[in-house]
């Protein structure tokens, strides 16, 4: 009887120890993995986007299609607001718009899939390219959540989190080599069964200028040539985003954009004390060469961003 009792105790301890080892697998890095999720049309995530140069904006990202991209191997992730689709096209700060691969939730940069998330997510390292920089990433797993830190050769970093219950990232922060925060993406809400219009605008920068004047007067002129998108042909429209600030007294800013026929397609004026931030607009029928001229008097600042855009819409 004593031998049988000893064997029972040994067996019990063996089972108990197995339970302890399994329970601490996440702490010890013992093989926990998060598999790639499956999205459905209408799944959505509401994010807030923060950048140092522009005010915060929110966008509802929606799965527009599940099997119509990349030969049926990618989703299309769009935005529920056409205006926000235009804003993101010209700011170009959201890597998670457009095609997203089924196998890895991979994003596309310059037409090439990038494994920002590398499924199955586990405590491993991998590399990818984003924002035209090469990154080396590593992940820590805690239950259904993965925490990723990526670094670039110039000292920049990306820090982001993935939640398996949400089926997407919940935060994403980009910091440059000086420690300045360039981008913060934060999840506010998520859900399914979105109904309504969904938009995506494929954009490419055409002009990005910052002008400052501290003297009595100053004039600038910039010309740029409109070229088609390398894969998708001619642009549907040009999208501009303007920040302007004119000081007190006799300060003023005058802005004119002309096409190749010298016809004016955009004119703006800011008098003393006038300012605006994040003004978004469009110019139809882009063609050929454009010339931007601006005149400044006094203490003035002007930021102009112009991008070409090709629009896509879905009703779900």
How far apart the termini lie comes to: 71 Å
Summing up helix and strand content along with how strands pair, one would put the structural category as: mainly beta
Q: Work out the helix count.
A: 3
The total count of strands amounts to: 20
Percent of sequence in beta strands? over 45%
Fraction of residues in helices? 10-25%
Principal-axis shape: globular
Biggest sheet overview: 10 strands, antiparallel
Could you tell me the mean pLDDT?
88
* Strands in their spatial order, largest beta sheet: 4-3-2-1-12-11-10-9-8-7
Verbal overview:
Helix content is 11%, strand content 54%. It is mainly β and 316 residues long. The chain folds into two domains: 44-195, no CATH class; 203-310, Jelly Rolls (Sandwich), CATH 2.60.120. Strands 4-3-2-1-12-11-10-9-8-7 form a ten-stranded antiparallel sheet. The longest helix is centred in the N-terminal third of the chain and has 22 residues, at 2-23. The protein is globular, with a radius of gyration of 26 Å. It starts with a helix and ends with a strand.
Summarize the structure.
This protein has 316 residues and is mostly beta strands. The chain has helices at residues 2-23, 25-28, 82-91; strands at 44-50, 57-69, 74-79, 98-101, 107-109, 112-114, 125-130, 133-142, 145-152, 157-163, 168-175, 181-191, 197-213, 218-225, 237-246, 252-258, 264-270, 275-284, 289-297, 300-315. The chain has 2 domains: 44-195, no CATH class; 203-310, Jelly Rolls (Sandwich), CATH 2.60.120.
